[in-house]
């Protein structure tokens, strides 16, 4: 199959972003499949170089008040649909026997990055429980006691949810003493030392970093 070059990836990303802003779900999916997968673009590249970077641009446009909250929600819903559609195409390594739970902290509604990280973990052979957005810490703790994962990964996008991250970490440690915890998300661009303060592993903004952290922490 043909390998996409960087200029064509840039074009694909721009076209996907335009489809998001237009609310054109059909065109967005067509681009990812027909111009992406069927032309030999690795699924991981579509995640990080197209969907993720397009979402960063959507976030910038919203922060600068160029698009409305409604437009941001419209665009983000398309990325959520795209990830759901691409899920069945995930290449998967053999099961490594480790279970990872991925969750956004209470109040955090931005779940695309965490969902993408969950997909990358599955591709690497991990069994994943993805809890999604806005999980109250007491309910997170209850799930942890029931499932007993090998690693908990917590996602924070907005800096004003960092106190909720601390609360989630505290509840997790009370529920499962000694549990391995990784944290990450865009919020850590402005709080780079918080992971050391919390005594957790940092996986940054990239799903690949989470996989590397999980493998290193769990000895995979």
What would your notes on this structure say?
This protein is of the alpha/beta class and 220 residues long. The chain is built from nine helices and five strands; from the N terminus they run ααααβαβαβαβαβα. The chain has helices at 6-22, 25-34, 43-63, 69-87, 112-123, 137-147, 162-175, 194-198, 207-218; strands spanning 99-104, 127-132, 151-155, 180-184, 201-204. Strands 2-1-3-4-5 form a five-stranded parallel beta sheet, sandwiched between helices. Strand 4 (180-184), helix 8 (194-198) and strand 5 (201-204) form a beta-alpha-beta unit. Helix 1 packs across helix 4 (69-87) and helix 6 (137-147) runs parallel beside helix 7.
Keywords, please?
single chain, 220 residues, alpha/beta, five-stranded parallel sheet
Topology readout:
Blueprint (H helix, E strand, L loop, with lengths): L5 H17 L2 H10 L8 H21 L5 H19 L11 E6 L7 H12 L3 E6 L4 H11 L3 E5 L6 H14 L4 E5 L9 H5 L2 E4 L2 H12 L2
Parallel strand pairs: 1-2, 1-3, 3-4, 4-5
Q: Which stretches are poorly predicted, pLDDT < 50 over at least 5 residues?
A: 1-7
Roughly what percent helix? 55-70%
Task: Estimate what percentage of residues fall within beta strands.
Answer: 5-15%
Count of runs of 4 or more consecutive helical residues: 9
Main β-sheet, spatial strand arrangement: 2-1-3-4-5
Give the CA-based shape.
globular
The average pLDDT is: 90
Task: Outline the biggest β-sheet.
Answer: 5 strands, parallel
The CA-CA distance between the termini, in Å, is 31 Å
Extended strand count: 5
* Rg over C-alpha atoms, rounded to the nearest angstrom: 17 Å
Structural class label: alpha/beta
Order of secondary-structure elements: HHHHEHEHEHEHEH
